[in-house]
Amino acid sequence: MSSRADLGALLILGAGWGFTVPLTKIAVSTGHAPLGLIFWQTLIGAVALGALRLILGKPVRLSWPLWRTFLLIACLGTVLPNSFSYLAAAQLHAGVMGIVISLVPVFAFPVALLLGNDRFSWRRFLGLFAGLCGVVMLAGPQSLPEAAMVLWIPVALIAPFCYALEGNLVAKLGTQGMGPGHALFGASVAAAMISLPLPLALGSGQFIDPRGLVFGAAEYAVLGSSVIHVPVYTRYVWLVGRAGAVFASQVAYVVTGSGVVWAMVLLGENYSAFVWLSLCLILGGVFLVQPRHKRPMVAKAPAGQGGPAAQ
């Protein structure tokens, strides 16, 4: 495959992932609670991934020794980050959420240093500083239409931090011989199992009962983002093997940019000059913290929102 075709695949994947950014905003627009959304999102993803793997003749083993990896990815890669993302998405613009999620590589660098997965680099430290400056600007009163929204920026930041922690832990501990697709399938099953009893046990009423449910924009948004995630993620893993981890990790730029554009087109969002400057600072920081050499990468795309972790 030519480099031009590789670039085309990268742009298509990024546009697909970016499309899930406004879908997240739509999903929370009618008051559906995070755990209920996560359960159906992960259940749909698990069924679709399982069916795809059976069709392709790939393993669908869920044996007990593998559950350490499944639970790690499920908790840090889905249940925790998506819970906070859904809470923040109900209060913030979808475009702002798309910008925040691009901070995964920026958070991943200091986490990698703490875990001994990487070495200090002034170039990447400068990227970390630029990303943090972008966050400060994004949280400024000039960027957000309402001052109260600034309180939700720290909530939104929990998601990229979880993804950064997840990627580094999996990189350090390994996936017990599983490929990314197998690990994601098991993690989707685990996340569905975790999120189902929680709203019932807590009596919070977060479970979404499909019986008699009238499908509207929010329900179709959850279904759409879950279904989009499966082919986009599997093709992303393919692109990592085809063009290398460093090239494929650049999809983060496309996800963020397309997420902002999709939010403008579908939701009619508009942003101040400070938001655009924040976007430039954050993407510049992401560029600087990206590793220059090819190495194995834990690819993770948060289902229904955001893009992949690059670590």
Give the tags.
disordered C terminus, 311 residues, single chain
Describe this entry's structure for a reader.
This protein has 311 residues and is an all-alpha fold. The chain has one domain. The protein is 69% helix and 0% strand.
Task: Please render the helix and strand layout as text.
Blueprint: H1 3-27, H2 34-56, H3 67-89, H4 94-101, H5 104-115, H6 122-138, H7 153-173, H8 180-195, H9 197-201, H10 217-243, H11 245-249, H12 251-267, H13 273-289
**Main sheet properties:** none
Secondary-structure element pattern, one letter each: HHHHHHHHHHHHH
Mean pLDDT, to the nearest integer, reads 84
Bin the strand percentage. under 5%
In total, the number of strands is: 0
Number of helices: 13
- End-to-end Cα distance, whole Å, is 25 Å
Task: Give the % helix.
Answer: 55-70%
Unreliable segments (pLDDT under 50, ≥5 consecutive)?
Answer: 294-311
> Can you tell me the number of structural domains?
1
Question: Concise description?
Answer:
This protein is mainly alpha-helical. The protein has helices at about 5-25, 35-55, 65-90, 95-100, 105-115, 120-140, 155-175, 180-195, 195-200, 215-245, 245-250, 250-265, 275-290.
